[in-house]
Design brief:
Layout lengths: L1 H5 L3 H4 L4 E3 L1 E6 L9 E6 L9 E3 L2 H11 L12 E5 L5 E5 L4 E4 L2 E3 L6 H5 L4 E17 L6 E7 L2 E8 L3 E9 H9 L2 H11 L7 E3 L4 E10 L3 E2 L2 E3 L5 E2 L7 H21 L7 H29 L4 H15 L2 H11 L16
Parallel strand pairs: 2-10, 8-16
Antiparallel strand pairs: 1-4, 2-3, 5-6, 6-7, 9-12, 9-13, 9-14, 10-11, 11-12, 14-17, 15-16
Helix pairs in contact: 7-8
Length: 349
């Protein structure tokens, strides 16, 4: 939340937010009755600060747009027809005939980024042959601000707390099973969700239709070219097994903002490749490590190989008995590691 506090918008965003004060991680095979607990987190990442908060996406977008009124011109819906990043300014031609010239274009247009393609930036991709499923549920038993992640052969099943005995669900299935589940009536979907969660939240009711999207790894080989910087999923789309996709994007925002502001203060051209490569060098290692971790975790947990299951359960149990390791993992996920951008720790640039 520190980045949003520094921007002065957290109070408005937090109206419908729910803190995550506890985490429970379990693992089981197909047909297992028991779901042994192998890893848990309790407490605060810092005094008075929970591990994380769940905030509805519409509240994040609404708070950002309201704060930007008077300083930002929103042009939508439009699409980019051509882009030219040669010369002292970049140029975008939109489908409504408008031409925009600027020192720097920031591409934050998703994992299938049109601007990345126009710039000729290649990607490293891997199709997981899985779909992510998401929905919101209300449930009989209060979650107690606890996030649950259950590892199953088909992939992880995560329940994230929302206010008023409601939770956001994100889980992984094969493409075929995802299509089958999505076509079922909501009552049947609710019963399957209850069983997948081990009935830990009692009877559930869907508040919205289940949405499905394909999962793939996509890493841009370059984050920058002259006059263009990639940000968020346009630079890196990873498996959602750790729930770090948004956090990686916020780190990009904080790092790029700091690089640009410091360059302007020094009288440098902030669209120059030498300046933009500072951002790329800052973010490249963190992104590569997180992509490797999420990819490895998905391969390790999304199977029923007995030897791998024994090894992963031993590893989870070992981490659960090492409080300093657990604390370090939480701090890194919260963006509190050394050398991070100032905005992540709530500092002004």
């Amino acid at each position: 939340t520190r980045i949003f506090e520094a921007l002065g918008i957290w109070e408005k965003m937090s109206i419908n937010a729910a803190p995550i004060s506890h985490m429970r991680v379990t693992d089981s095979g197909s047909g297992d009755i028991s779901r042994p607990l192998f890893l848990s987190f309790d407490g605060e990442v810092q005094p008075g600060r929970p591990f994380a908060h769940m905030v509805p996406f519409r509240d994040i977008v609404g708070a950002v747009l309201e704060a930007a009124k008077g300083t930002l011109e929103l042009m939508a819906p439009v699409s980019v027809q051509t882009m030219n990043t040669d010369g002292p300014e970049a140029e975008l031609v939109l489908d409504d005939g408008c031409t925009i010239r600027t020192a720097l274009i920031v591409a934050a247009d998703g994992s299938r980024s049109v601007l990345r393609h126009m710039a000729g930036i290649k990607t490293i991709t891997h199709d997981y042959r899985q779909n992510g499923l998401v929905t919101t549920i209300s449930h009989e038993i209060d979650h107690g601000n606890t996030a649950f992640e259950h590892f199953r052969p088909a992939g992880p099943f995560a329940s994230l707390p929302l206010p008023n005995s409601r939770s956001s669900l994100v889980w992984t299935e094969s493409r075929e099973e995802a299509a089958r589940l999505k076509a079922l009536p909501q009552e049947e979907q609710a019963r399957i969700i209850e069983a997948s969660m081990g009935h830990c939240l009692g009877e559930v009711e869907l508040e919205e239709p289940v949405q499905s999207f394909p999962l793939r790894l996509c890493l841009a080989r370059k984050f920058v070219v002259p006059r263009l910087a990639l940000l968020g999923d346009a630079a890196h789309a990873i498996h959602p097994i750790t729930g770090q996709g948004l956090n990686l994007g916020l780190k990009d925002v904080a790092a790029l903002s700091e690089v640009i502001i410091e360059a302007v203060r020094q009288g440098e051209d902030h669209g120059n490749l030498d300046v933009l490569q500072r951002y790329e060098r800052w973010r490249r290692l963190d992104v590569a490590l997180m992509a490797m971790v999420t990819d490895s975790l998905n391969r390790l947990f999304s199977n029923e190989v007995a030897a791998l299951r024994v090894a992963r359960d031993f590893g989870l149990g070992l981490v659960d008995r090492l409080p300093l390791v657990k604390k370090g993992l939480i701090r890194h996920a919260a963006g509190l590691g050394a050398g991070g951008p100032k905005l992540l720790s709530g500092q002004d640039i």
